[in-house]
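Kindly review this protein for my students:
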Amino acid sequence: MGERPPPTGVTGEEQAGVHIRDSSISEVKVLRPEKHGDGRGFLSEVYNRKAFALAGIEIDFVQDNHSLSAQKGTVRGLHFQAPPFAQAKLVRVVRGSVFDVAVDLRRGAATYGRHTGVVLSAEAWNQVLIPAGFAHGFMTLDADTEVLYKVSDYYSPEHESGLLWNDPALGIQWPLPAEDVVLSDKDLGHPTLSQLASPFGP
């Protein structure tokens, strides 16, 4: 399954080997680094701090996380950390594919409670940049999917929280039906948007 077409009005630009465009929520960016291949394989600069800065994105990533989801239909999310340990994320897939979702939790923002979603895959070689102030999650579309993501602050169990993945108020159209979804007990217990006291200001 390929990436969904960009919504109307999406803008894009090229910076030092990476194409960056806005998603339907402009603060969430979709990126595609260049691949340089030959008979041996390929090389790709999947993150370049200078290129990001030239595009106006200056984030100090401090930790890399790597997850494996064995079953198709695994949902991880929707997760966030509250300030002062809020995390921006740069997410990519190195095996398989996911439907990746970000939900705006910034109180007072015009897009509060809205979401944006994109299919990320190893084949498409795309990434999504999610700023702090958003809940994040994904559904795997293949078995044995591996996701790598950078975060801008360290894991803090005292500040981690979440949002219910299938809250009807969010209107997320997940690709697979609920009966095919694999979830942790923890993710099943997250509050809905109406129950959540968002810790993020505008």
